[in-house]
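Sanity check

After download, print the first record. It should look like this:
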Amino acid sequence: MLRRNRDTAGPRHVLVTGAASGLGLALATEFLAKGDRVTLTDLHDEAPETVTALGGDWSYRRLDVTSEDDWAAVAAETDRLDILVSNAGIAVGGRVTETSVATWQQALDINVLGAVRGVRAMVPKLGRGGRVVLTASLAGLVHAPSMATYNATKAATVALGETLDAELRADGITTSVICPQFFRSGLADSLTGDDAAADAFARILLGRTWLTAPTIARRAVKGIEARRVVITPDAVAVFSWYSKRFTRIPYLLVVRLIGRVTAARMRRR
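Expected structure tokens:
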């Protein structure tokens, strides 16, 4: 496939999904600070205050990542794209036995197929030097108990990113997958309620972390600019991933211990 070179004289065009809050907004802010032209997308019909308060060269449009018609409309409006950031997603806590199939389908449709739709629509707009960025999670690399749905969708996102990188590098396009640990964001608001005990535990983890979305975004953008495939933007993510890869038996013992502790905690709720 022959691809044109990006026009390096002008600003890059970056499109970010799920950009009205949390990590998406923080990533958009980082790219704007670099002088890029950023299209922020989310489910709001009009740009919310979090977006209108931004400086720099930005635009906003509504985009439902589960809608192929929405993606087709965005693609039709886009002449050239330099960086696609597929960030939109939902958090899903819950034990396998307590999480409904409908919740599984919703999580897959947003977290995995939302990225797939975006890639299919927008990769043809990327020239040589272009980049695809997928927001996954440390949960895509290491798999804690009571998070099966989230773990599975984020592991699929990591697999998608690694596959895309192998497929697209020949055309000069690289892919990065962001895999942070829990950080303070609005993800807790998207927990389904299928498993109240697991959701409560997840809210504790999301509330007690010291990491913030701007910190993760700043570190992630450095990894994106370095064209790293898997980006672990915090010490816990790095330690957990390397522990699983290089000290398998101790890692499994720790995960099983966490499972026992978590199960005991759930029974008390």
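If your output differs, re-run the checksum step. Summary of this record's structure: The first strand starts at residue 13 and ends at 16.
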